[in-house]
Amino acid sequence: MYPQSVELAVESVVNSLKETDFFNIEQVDPSYVREHFGKELFQQWLSGEEFSLTEDRANYLLQLAITSQYIDGMIERGLIGTVEDADGKELVYVTEKGKQAAAMGPDLDVLNRF
Length: 114
Prior knowledge:
The chain has helices spanning 4-19, 22-26, 30-46, 55-76, 96-103; strands spanning 80-84, 90-94. Helix 1 runs antiparallel to helix 3 and helix 3 crosses helix 4. The protein folds into 2 domains: 1-69; 77-114, no CATH class. It is built from 5 helices and 2 strands, in the order H-H-H-H-E-E-H.
């Protein structure tokens, strides 16, 4: 999907995270990390930059990966949905099922009942 140098850099990130047990601790699928780091490093490759990420940027991409997985999970469970607006932006909304889950209280375990 990406040029080989980008793929190798992304795999280096993923392997480093595996060594720290990140994927088990955070319960995140490596594909989400590959997606977000791949996009970032590909942009650097396109502009001819050397691959580099600050600690803040890397942490942001990891948070984005985790958040993306949670959002996808809520979409799969039918708790939220998405539509595209006239400008092509994706908008997220709470479904009826999501409203029912929210009405049950702040306990995150309630999401597993749906």
